[in-house]
Amino acid sequence: MGLQKRATEQSDSDDSPRVPVKRNKRLPPPTAAAGRPRRSTAAATKEDYTPDSAHEPSMARAPDRRRKGKDKRGKQGASTGSTVSVEIERRRVESGPEEDDDDGDERQYWLMKAEPEARIVNGVKVSYSIDELMCAEEPEAWDGVRNYSARNNMKAMSEGDLVFFYHSNCKVPGIVGVMEIVREATTDESAFNETHPYHDPKSSRDKPRWVVVHVRFVRKFAAPMSLKTLRSFGLPGGVLADMQVLRMSRLSVSRVMGREWRFIMGFIEAEEERMRDEDDDEGKDTKRQQQENGHGEGADPKQQKHEAEEEEGHARTHDGPDELSPAADAQSHSHVA
């Protein structure tokens, strides 16, 4: 059909004689030299889904199709990628050399999400924060998990594992503290409770679907690590690029690799130390200002006595009692408060 169409177009464009067309003749199949090998249009088979690891990687590199001239984005657009790469490399250097996870430490690390701000689930108000865990007198059961991947992570937990407490679905989501696994996975009884917001009618005592782990409070961070900061280190090539919570953002219980845990803890501790230094500087400035004004522990006692005598002599010059007006009295109470 294609030959007939081209022949017709040729006859309409000039006066050349019409080329005879053999309609019943099929075109030969393309050879290997003519292009890519033929591929069947039938449904894909299991061979199409062979893992990449089953094939040997090709050593041939694809040709560089980028133009060597000026980029359409201009000089500023062309430098954007290099700027990001430089920033990632800077953070990688600052974080120090990466350590292998197999360093003899049998402890595992995890991240578990909770919602500190109340919301309604099946007619019940639910919320949980690290402050509630901190006030708990006994280990808390981490219940209500209804995701199979998260459940499998909970089943893999061992006593003594450390967990990041993560505040989710709030104004500033992020890692806010640390807790410890004190009891390994057991059956989640809340799934059988019809009044529980996460009741699962398909889960039975004979064949329970869900589990809980018991956790205890370890510490609350003075400088939490926000989700925005986590993502800044999770760019391609970054130290947290493979972190599970960033790749599977809807997973409420995720695994944390040893090198990721050490990097995050180092970052938070450095930030807390910086905050303490700032507080110390502010305290020194306040003390210095009090000394300059003649108040505080560092003030001169003779100067304070002299000022007190002057105030007493000024008070004796008044004819009547020194009474404050209502407005002045209100202002004084406000200042004391």
Number of DSSP strand runs: 8
Whole-number mean pLDDT: 74
Low-pLDDT runs of 5+ residues are: 5-13, 32-63, 65-86, 95-100, 320-337
Rg measurement, Å? 36 Å
How much helical structure, as a percent, in the residues?
25-40%
Q: Given the helix and strand composition, which structural class is it?
A: alpha+beta
Shape: elongated
Strand content: 15-25%
The largest sheet, given as strand count, sense and whether it forms a barrel, is:
6 strands, mixed
Q: Cα distance, first to last residue? A: 94 Å
Side-by-side strand order of the widest sheet: 4-7-6-5-1-8
Q: Helices and strands, in N-to-C order? A: HHHEEEHEHEEEHHEHHH
Characterization of this structure:
The protein is elongated and about 105 Å long. The C terminus is likely disordered. The longest helix has 35 residues. It has a six-stranded mixed sheet. It has a two-stranded antiparallel sheet with strand order 2-3. It has ten helices and eight strands. The chain has 337 residues and is of the alpha+beta class.
Which key features would you list for this structure?
337 residues; alpha+beta; two-stranded antiparallel sheet
